[in-house]
Backbone:
């Protein structure tokens, strides 16, 4: 078999196995039947059965009387990954300081793939719209201040890749955030050093955000502050951005000792 064909086949198998793991991870306390996994993944039952066999051999999946679930090796991998991506414990005191100083809402978003997951939130004593982003919310890169800060922190080729991949998702829920809008916003964000979302997703609400980088200089998360637009007018933004940058620097310093150096 030619090397290119073999490589393509291996990548397809890896992608399918990864999709199964993602379904299992989406409901970690559930036992999935073979039929349910086949329907959810869109794969033939025989293919799912073969993939599950390989994943069980590696300890990533476990077979129980009720079906299939994540295995112990998945837990070990998840535990290791949490040291890099589960930043909520580190970030809560930082967010609290931003919320107390500004009186507004401070958020932590972590980048996973081409999306940003809201991991932590602290509220100040000023009013905030009920439609403001909550913990657990997931947005495509570029959709919201924290998601835009992360998109703008990526290399140019990765920015274009993210714009292409998220385009179908943005067409529906985030229609105002077009490809051209993102490209302009990335340039503006890079020029000013922070991201701004001014009523684009939720009318009457403004947010500013800065990116947080890991020990290798890669963007991994973003800190943002959201408020009703009257509280984040241009003249007040430098004060808020300075607070965010200060706390982002503290978070980056906390992450360095816990990050394994590249070999």
Residues:
């Amino acid at each position: 078999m030619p090397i290119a064909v073999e490589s393509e086949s291996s990548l397809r198998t890896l992608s399918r196995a990864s999709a199964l793991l993602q379904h299992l991870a989406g409901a970690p306390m559930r036992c999935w039947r073979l039929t349910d996994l086949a329907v959810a993944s869109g794969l033939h039952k025989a293919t799912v059965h073969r993939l599950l066999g390989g994943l069980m051999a590696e300890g990533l999946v476990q077979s129980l009387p009720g079906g299939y679930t994540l295995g112990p090796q998945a837990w070990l991998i998840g535990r290791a990954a949490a040291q890099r991506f589960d930043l909520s414990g580190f970030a809560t005191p930082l967010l609290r300081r931003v919320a107390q100083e500004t009186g507004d809402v401070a958020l932590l978003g972590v980048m996973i793939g081409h999306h940003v997951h809201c991991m932590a939130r602290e509220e100040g004593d000023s009013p905030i719209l009920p439609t403001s982003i909550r913990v657990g919310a997931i947005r495509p890169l570029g959709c919201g201040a924290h998601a835009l800060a992360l998109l703008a922190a990526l290399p140019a080729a990765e920015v274009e890749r993210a714009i292409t991949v998220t385009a179908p998702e943005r067409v529906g829920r985030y229609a105002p955030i077009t490809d051209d809008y993102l490209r302009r916003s990335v340039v503006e964000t890079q020029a000013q050093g922070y991201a701004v979302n001014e009523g684009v997703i939720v009318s009457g609400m403004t947010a500013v955000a800065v990116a947080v980088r890991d020990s290798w200089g890669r963007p991994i998360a973003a800190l943002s502050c959201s408020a009703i637009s009257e509280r984040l007018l241009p003249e007040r933004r430098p004060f808020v951005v300075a607070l965010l940058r200060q706390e982002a620097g503290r978070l980056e310093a906390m992450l360095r000792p816990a990050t394994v150096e590249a070999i």
Remarks:
- The CA atoms of residues 31 and 185 lie 44 Å apart.
- The chain is about 50% helix and 20% strand.
